[in-house]
C-alpha cells in the first residue's frame, strides 16, 4: 500500500505541477532554445572567419603577396586545401583588386567595398565586408599585409553552415548573418519561393569579436503550434517522471540509504572498476589505445552505468578519489601491454575542477610512476561540458603536464563551452568530436560541414582528431572523407572489463599478425 500510494501521489503531483507551470514555461523555453540556436549559427560563422584569418596570417608570414606566379600559386593552394575560402585576392590600400587566386571569380562581382565601408574586428586584425555579386552577395575577410596592400578572402558561408533549426521549424523560419549597417552577407531561407510573412519573431545574437550578428526569424503561429505539441509532450513526460519518481520514493521509503554514504562505502570496497573502450585507426582498424570508463560492480553482480553515479560523485566531491582509483587499477593491470607497445595510449576523463585542484600534477606523476608506465602513454581528457573556472591557471597546468610528457585531449568538442580562443590557449593536443556529430554525419550535411571545420582548425593548431560513438561503417567512411583519422565506438567494441580488454587485444594482435599487418617481432618488442 505504501508503494502504491507513493506512486499515485507522485504522478498526481507531477501532473498538477506540469499543468500549472507548462503554459508559462513553454513559451520561455522555446524562446531560449531558438536564441541558443542563433548563438550556434553565430559560433559557426565565427569559426569560419577564424579559419579564414588563420589562412591569411599564414600567407602573410610566408612572404610577399606581390601577384607573382609563385604568390598566386600559394593563394590557389590554400583555396584548394580549405573548405571555407573560395577565393583569395590581393588588393591595394584603396580597395582595388590587384590579382586573385582565381581571376574568373571577378566576373561575378557587381562591385567592391572601399576600405572605409569595411567593419573592423574587435582585435583590429581583420575587416569584414560585403561583396555584391550578380548571383547574390559574398562575404569578405580582409587582413593588411603592409601599408600599401592587403589580402582578402572570399568565404563560402552557405545554407549548410546556417542550417541550425529543427525539422519542425525549418520551413517556417530563416537565418541571416548581417553586418552592423544591416547588410546581409549570408542567409538560409529553406522556403525561398514563398512570400515573407508580414510579422515574424526575431532572435538575434551579436558577436563580441566580429562586427556580425546572427538573426533567426520565426513565424509566430509556428511557435504557437509548437507550444501545443510541447504541452502534450511535457504532460506525458510529467506522468512518466512522476511514476519513476514514485517508484524511487517507494524504494527509498522501504530501504532508506544515504546515496553519498553508499558512494563512500563503494569507494572503500573498490567496487568501481575500470572498463576500457578501444580507440582505432579508421582506415586500417588497428588498435592504438583505449579510454578508461568507470563502472560500478555491485556485490550482487549488478553493473551500474556511469550516469547513475558520476553526477553524484562530481557534486559530492568524490570524483577525484574515484578517478585515481580506476586509473591506478587500469595502469597496474595493463602495464605489460603498454610496455610491450610503446605507442599504445590510455586516456582517462578528468573534470576541469580536478585539473585545477591543488597538487594535481604531482599526484598524477606519482600514480603513473608507481605503475612503471611512460607519461607519453597517458592522455587526460578534459570535458567541454563543464566550463573551466580559471583559464589562465588551466593553461599553466596543461603546459606543465606537457613538459612532463602527458597529452591533453579536449572532449565533447562542438557542444560545450569552449570557443576557438579557449582551444588555442589551453594547448590541448587532441580534439575529440562528440557523438552528436558522428550520429548525424551520414544524414545531415550541416554535420559534415561542422566536422570538416573542426578538422581544419585542428590541423591549424597541430592537433589530432578522434571521433567518438562510431557505430556504423558508413560513419567511418564519412569521417575519413572529412579528414578524421582515429575513432572509438561500438562498431569495434563496447567498453570492456580489463580481463576482456586484454583478451580483445590478444585476438586483435594475433589476427593482425596473421594478415601480415604487424610482425611477430613487433608484437614481442
UniProtKB/TrEMBL annotation:
The organism's place on the tree of life at top rank: Bacteria
EC top class, as a word: hydrolase
Membrane-spanning parts: 229-250
Localization (cell): Cell membrane
EC identifiers of the protein: 3.1.4.52
Membrane topology classification: Multi-pass membrane protein
Record has Acyltransferase as a keyword: no
Positions of the EAL domain: 256-509
One Pfam match: CSS-motif
Amino-acid biosynthesis as UniProt keyword: no
Reaction equations catalysed: 3',3'-c-di-GMP + H2O = 5'-phosphoguanylyl(3'->5')guanosine + H(+)
Keyword terms: c-di-GMP, Cell membrane, Hydrolase, Membrane, Transmembrane, Transmembrane helix
PANTHER family: CYCLIC DI-GMP PHOSPHODIESTERASE PDED-RELATED, CYCLIC DI-GMP PHOSPHODIESTERASE PDEF
Name listed for the protein in its UniProt record: cyclic-guanylate-specific phosphodiesterase
